[in-house]
Design brief:
The chain is α/β, with parallel strands linked by helices. The chain has a domain at 59-266: NAD(P)-binding Rossmann-like Domain (Rossmann fold). The chain has helices spanning 2-26, 34-39, 41-44, 50-58, 71-81, 114-125, 143-147, 160-173, 200-203, 216-219, 223-242, and strands at 61-65, 85-89, 130-134, 152-155, 177-183, 186-192, 251-256, 261-266. Bound molecules: zinc ion. Residues 198-199, 201-202, 269-270, 273, 275-276 line the site of zinc ion.
């Protein structure tokens, strides 16, 4: 009985809070229906966002390359935040070993295409968002055509050759790129702004040799770490679009889930960089083939 009363009181308090929130923001509100106002009310009320920032988000186009452990939380938060158009690139189908971290998918989805299931889940979350699917592997032949249509690009990939294609293409097309990675209990994030940040190759001029790299299927990954890193990447995207806060545009942050420590390393442009240095040798997209250390279970 007491629980029922408490529950009713909570619901009433919640309804009141919704009213207060919408009333508070009504004064300067654009011509949105009540559901739209309520949907974004917890963001619009933020001093960093407001109606102006929310309108920027609604008008923005973000491409997420990879709908895996990083892509799933990135896509969820971007759709929830009201990013107007979201492109998803992923050629893969869902495997049962994906489910410890790829939170848009369920057991019944095994065998289905990731882009299809992700689209369905994201539209359920926010039907206002437009989803554009690319059920393909990004490569030197298609990257430019896809990337040129978007304002911000997110690298949520799990393989090095595609990372070089995406980051080089963003450099040539002058697109902001938010790149992340996760393995075991570790993760990294950095943001690369055109004409400002050190490029991807300033840090890693060329891919490592065959047999050096490990992948998540070789060494495993905590699903929570991909969730944390993907959430940081989504936050960077929102900051770029709305224009507030301090971006990771001159540093890389490293997270260790075992100790819960964050470290950051300041990055500088390299004069010897083969892409953005004084004497560039990379003048077009390059398709690398890099073999990993162990053949994975995926
Ligand atoms: Zn560079």
């Amino acid at each position: 009985m007491n629980d029922n009363i408490n529950c009713r009181q909570n619901t009433a308090a919640q309804a009141e809070q919704e009213t207060i929130t919408t009333d508070t923001i009504k004064e300067e509100s654009p011509d949105w229906d009540v559901n739209k106002k309520l949907r974004y009310s917890r963001q619009v009320i933020l001093k960093q966002i407001g109606y102006e920032g929310q309108t920027k988000l609604l008008n923005s186009k973000v491409l997420v390359v990879g709908a895996g452990g990083l892509g799933c939380p990135i896509l969820t938060y971007l759709a929830g935040a009201g990013v107007g158009t979201i492109g998803i690139v992923d050629f893969d189908t869902i495997g049962i070993s994906n489910l410890n971290r790829q939170v848009l998918f369920g057991t019944d989805d095994v065998g289905k295409k990731k882009v299809d299931v992700a689209q369905e889940a994201l539209l359920k979350l926010n039907p206002d968002v437009k989803i554009i699917k690319y059920p393909i592997r990004i490569n030197v032949d298609n990257a430019e055509e896809i990337i040129q249509d978007y304002d911000v690009i997110v690298d949520a990939l799990d393989n090095i050759p595609s990372r070089y294609v995406v980051s080089d293409c963003c450099y040539f097309l002058k697109k902001p790129l938010v790149t992340g990675g996760a393995m075991e209990s570790y993760g990294i994030v950095r943001t690369i702004l055109p004409n400002k940040s050190p490029c991807f190759r300033c840090l890693m001029p060329f891919p490592p040799k065959d047999g050096v790299l490990q992948t998540c299927s070789d060494v495993g990954v905590f699903g929570m770490v991909t969730g944390i890193i993907g959430s940081v990447q989504a936050m960077e995207v929102v900051k770029i679009i709305v224009g507030f806060g301090k971006l990771l545009d001159d540093r890389i942050i490293h997270f260790d889930g075992s100790t819960l420590k964050w470290n950051e390393i300041r990055l500088e442009k390299s004069e010897r960089c083969p892409l953005c240095g004084k004497n560039p040798t990379i003048t077009e997209l390059v398709q690398y083939e890099v073999k990993c250390k162990i053949k994975g279970l995926d």
